[in-house]
Amino acid sequence: MTVFTGQESRANSGEKLRFAAWGLVAAAPAFVAFAVCVLNQFYRYGAVLLDTGLLADLAWRKAPALPMSPVFQAPGFYLSQASTFYSLHVAPIFTLLSALSWLTPLSLAQWFALFTGIAHALLAIAVFWILSTDYALNKGWRIGLAVLLAIAFSFNGLAIAQVRYPHFEILIVASLMLFLVAWWHKRPILAAFFFALCLICREDAGFHVVSVLGVLVVLNWFYGIPLSEQKRTLIFLVIAFAYSAGALLLTGILFPGQSNFARVYLGDPPFAHLDAGLAQLRTLVYLFGRSYIFLPAGCAVIWAIVARNPYLLVGYIACIPWTLLHFVAKSEVAGNLAGYYGFPFMVAAFWPLIGWQMKARRSPRWEPLAGFGVMILASFTALSAQPNPTGIPLWSGFTNPPTLAEQSRVQLTMAAIHADHSKLGRILAGGSIASLNPGEFRYDETFLNGPPTTRDTLIFFAGDRDSEAIAGVASASGLRHHYAVSGTPMRIITNIKLSDLPAMGALVAADTPSR
User: Fold this and answer.
1) Residue 101: enclosing H or E segment and its boundaries?
2) What is the DSSP letter of 512?
3) What is residue 361's predicted lDDT score, i.e. its pLDDT?
4) What torsion, rounded to 10 degrees, do the Cα atoms 346, 350, 351, 355 define?
5) Are 306 and 121 in contact (CB under 8 A)?
6) N or C: which terminus of the chain has fewer CB atoms within 10 Å of its end residue's CB?
7) Are strands 508-510 and 481-485 parallel, antiparallel or unpaired?
């Protein structure tokens, strides 16, 4: 067996610092771009209340039990029974993030942007780590190539799909990738750290670990490696399975009336939604609308056949149960593998850098680099077919952040809304407004239950995705005064005079109503 082993154990401190510096260079573009994207969604384009606003709310200055804000609780709403987020997902990562948020002066949106930027940056670090150690890309132009490939992977089509509807599963991907590199390099302390980080992200994270390591164990056994020689892998596999199975069992006992799995995947009655038409539609979506997921998989299959190396496909084989589950899911978003639902495929696309080394070969080192590069290029297809609920533009949305003055102006206005809340009458806040501070609003003050008939005050972003409904409510309510907050997309329509709004009066000005 030919393996290009890492040089870290023999590197002196200067070399380690050099590698660390280059690793930060590789991580910096993703950190900046994806943090900017989230900031733009909150401060310019309007974040989606479910789920981006919900998750940002959970990560920012919450009690350890992660109580749900009242805005998400109302009779008939599917979150109405969820007094704590733990009834929906066992995600201690939010308890940790929320505790850390008290140590910073950052707003809810800024804190979630920081989290998102770091999580995406870790993708680049995992790729750079294995390329610079296992593929001799550690000197001169070679280390530059490692940086470029790491950056390219961190911006692949799946990563872009994730941030267009920001979610926390990206940290499952990053921590699992880093765990696999540390496991491969026989770095037990680092492997245990990233393994634990992965598990605390969500109750099913352990099953994603099991799926990858389980396929690997079976393939090794097929090639004559007995289970007794795979103890290190089996230990992680067993712990991961026990954690996720235990978390699901405990959740079922403590919160028997709440089942995310039934709502998203099974339906009621189970699988009654399935028919030939749905199967045909999802097949077409997967083939054409999700080519950024499945075209890299096809490239990996061809590569594995040509190289006669089935180890390249461990990650994608591990994704088969996930794919089948979503193909029959009740939820349209989940069933179409939209947004974050394709996250396990990012691990699968990374795995060939490890899998290529697991079978003897005489091919040159450029083969895995070329194969990996082609898979990244394939992931940039069908980007226009990705759901983009905030309308975030692909270039400026990642490179042109809202200024600190813009962000400050929005935050000051949110504070003024809080101060004048009782004077605004019956409020209707667009999702773009409610996402900035979900704890400020009640369920009936948002669009979560659909547009109401009349209201006294409407607060929203210009270009809000609910703009037609807002215009209808404004017309039905006979609202006459249109205001804008200078330097922000925030708009207000009301019958209340500015002189009756002591906090907001100094921030808003008359606005020409859009037609």
Assistant:
1) helix 92-101
2) P
3) 59
4) 160
5) no
6) C
7) antiparallel
> What is the rounded CA–CA span in Å between residue 459 and residue 432?
9
State yes or no: cis peptide before 51, omega within 30 of 0: yes
Residue given tokens 């393996």 in the structure block: 3
What pTM does this model have?
Answer: 0.94
The number of angstroms, rounded, from the C-alpha of 456 to the middle of its chain's C-alpha atoms is: 36
The contacts of residue 152 (CB under 8 Å, 6+ apart) are 373, 376
pLDDT at position 5 is: 45
Determine the longest span between alpha carbons in the chain, in angstroms.
81
Sign of CA dihedral 338, 263, 70, 100: negative
Length of the chain: 515
Q: Do the beta carbons of residue 315 and residue 351 sit within 8 Å?
A: yes
Q: Rounded distance, CA 335 to CA 323, Å?
A: 9
Q: Identify whether 105 is preceded by a cis peptide bond (ω within 30 of 0).
A: no
Could you tell me the CA-to-CA distances from 438 to 70, 286, 455, 486 in Å, in that order? 8, 34, 19, 23
Q: Which residue's entry shows tokens 């132009």?
A: 141
What is the H or E stretch that residue 461 is in? strand 457-461
Nearest of 348, 299, 361, 339 to residue 320 by alpha carbon = 348
Find out whether 228 and 64 touch, Cβ atoms under 8 Å: no
Q: Profile the chain (515 residues) by mean pLDDT over runs of 10 residues.
A: 44 79 96 98 95 96 94 78 88 98 98 98 98 91 96 98 96 98 97 98 98 98 96 97 96 84 89 95 97 98 96 98 97 96 98 90 78 98 94 95 97 96 94 95 90 93 90 93 93 91 91 70
Alpha-carbon gap, residue 392 to 401, rounded angstroms = 12
Question: Both tokens of residue 286?
Answer: 């997967």
Residues 490, 493, 497, 499, Cα dihedral to 10°: -10
Distances (CA, A) of 403 to 36, 179, 267, 399, 411: 10, 36, 44, 12, 12
| Structure confidence at residue 514 (pLDDT) | 63
Q: So where are the chain's domains?
A: 1-202, 409-510
For position 360, what pLDDT does the model report? 59
